[in-house]
Amino acid sequence: xxxxxxxxxxxxxxxxxxxxxxxxxxxxxxxxxxxxxxxxxxxxxxxxxxxxxxxxxxxxxxxxxxxxxxxxxxxxxxxxxxxxxxxxxxxxxxxxxxxxxxxxxxxxxxxxxxxxxxxxxxxxxxxxxxxxxxxxxxxxxxxxxxxxxxxxxxxxxxxxxxxxxxxxxxxxxxxxxxxxxxxxxxxxxxxxxxxxxxxxxxxxxxxxxxxxxxxxxxxxxxxxxxxxxxxxxxxxxxxxxxxxx
Length: 245
Fold this sequence. Notes:
disordered N terminus
C-alpha cells in the first residue's frame, strides 16, 4: 500500500524535465531552470523557462518544462496550455509524458473524464508507460465514484426540489385561502348584521307579544275582580232587603 501511494505521488507531480536543447543560450537558461526546479524554487524555474519559451515558442521541450513548473506552482490552466503547445510538435519524443501530465492536470481539477482521455493518449504514444496506465485505472475508479456521488446528488436535489414545490404550493394555497377569506369577509359581515337585525326584530316582536299578553291578563284580572266585587255587592243588597230577585 505504501509503494502505491509513493508511485501515485511521483506520477502526479510531473514526469521530469528535459535539457536536450541545441542553442547555447537556451541550454544555459534551461539548465538554470532545471536546477531551480530540482531545488524546489519553482517560481524562479518558471521565470527561466518562460523567458526561454518566449524566445523560442516552437520548442516543445521548453514548453513542456514550463508546463511542469506551472503545474508545481498550482497554475493548472497555464500548465495545460504549455503542455498543449509542446504537443503541437509531432516529433516531440516525450509526447506520452506530455499527455500524461495533461491527464494529471485534469485529474487535479476532478475532470476525470478528460483525465482518462489524456492518459489513453499517453498509452497510445507509449504502451509501456506504466505511470500513465496506473493513473488511467485510478482516474477510471474516481470517475465511477464521482458518477455515483452525482447520481445521489441529483436524487437529493430532486427530492429537495419536490419539497420546495410542495411548500410553494402550500403557501400558494394558504395565500389564496386568505385572499378568499378577505374577499368573503364583507359578505360575512353583512350576513351577520342581517342576522343580528333579524334577531333583534324577533326579540322586539316577542317582547311586544309578551307585553300585550301581560296587559290582557291584567285587564282580565281587573275585570274579574270588578265582577267579583259587583256580585258581592248584590249579595249584600239582597240581605238587606230580603229579596232575592
